[in-house]
Known about the structure:
Layout lengths: L8 E8 L5 H13 L5 E8 L1 H5 L9 E6 L4 E8 H5 L4 E5 L4 H9 L5 E5 L15 H9 L5 E4 L2 H9 L5 E2 L22 E8 L9 H9 L8 E7 L4 H4 L7 E7 L5 H9 L3 E4 L8 H8 L3 E5 L14 E2 L1 E7 L2 E6 L1 H13 L10 H20 L1
Parallel strand pairs: 1-2, 1-5, 5-6, 6-7, 7-8, 9-10, 9-12, 10-11, 12-13, 13-14
Antiparallel strand pairs: 2-3, 3-4, 15-16
Helix pairs in contact: 7-11
Amino acid sequence: MTDSPARSTEVGIIAPDRPEGGLFRDAETICWALSGIRGLSSSVIKVRENLYTKDYAACTNETLELVHPSNCARLPVKLTMTDWLAKLDCVVILEALNPSLLDLVFRSPKTKRILYIPNLEWATLDPYADDTKPWIKQLRSYGQRVVCVARSESIQRRLAENGITSDLLRWSIPDAVRTRDHSLRRPAHPIRVLYNAGNHGFRDRRGSDIVANALGQWPHSFPKLKVFIKSNEPHSALDAVPSRANLEIKSSRGFLQSRDKIMELYDKADVVLYPSRFEGFGLGLLEALHRGCYVLATRGDPMQDMLDPASLRIDAKLTGHVRLAPSYEPNPASLIDALGKIACNPELLRSQQSGHLKSRQEDFCDNLLRLVRHG
């Protein structure tokens, strides 16, 4: 990617004050993609979460702190929201389509472009309701003043169905793309499987019940698996699956704030299970792929969009939509079949390619730069 013209462009990203969360990870990714571009600088404002989702007007004159996104360190500069917005050519808003925020941005004399990147809109919609009509109506009301950016083709299609034009920006992450040398594995060693359940997700969207069903039916004739389950909360079906001769299950409960600790989990796994029912993007899936893991994910969008075309997938039935995302019901039998193929033939671990992840990174950086420069 070549240097851009020398004209200065100031980009600001607004993220909730929760560095361990996915939206702050997105802010980090945007800053990474724009770093090193001559004539362009970016900064992040961390807004207290109650203000992030409710009343931006309340922080108009509140002193906010810029942060360095790579390590969440506070920078020495302190500004009010109004002063910060007055410096920016482009404002990037993640998830929360907040009217009071947009009013502040619209009043800013310098800001020329507003990029809004929707996900599943947990931040601004009732998490127990599927009705997106008020949100869609609000987004339409801004017209061309707000550029809507879709992370995946499935979200772009869903927006188009509601009369909203969006720019497609296939999301990536800053992590280096690693290639595992699976030829070093000794054939007699069991396949190591990781399932990172997190909080299991709204409507069990992580598929913990699917994993429990598949492991509970793991055939006695299949090779042994060593399964590690990481979760933040208990799950009755998952917790009830017992170990046996050809299935060793270990688990750990508790929230991991350190990204290094999460990467350690990936490094100890050959296969990562990702049987999601729906995703706005799928950050954990992409992190595992970049770490060189073989990922068994749901055959559906946007999950399969990130996989090597030759990768095994978990068959699933399309059941509708949850917010902007297609919703699926993964088939536990398909998960058993795919995992069984790898357990019986570990050479399959070497078949998953990673070249597309590097080109995805490059395309992401180029397209994001185009959007912040020209909208």
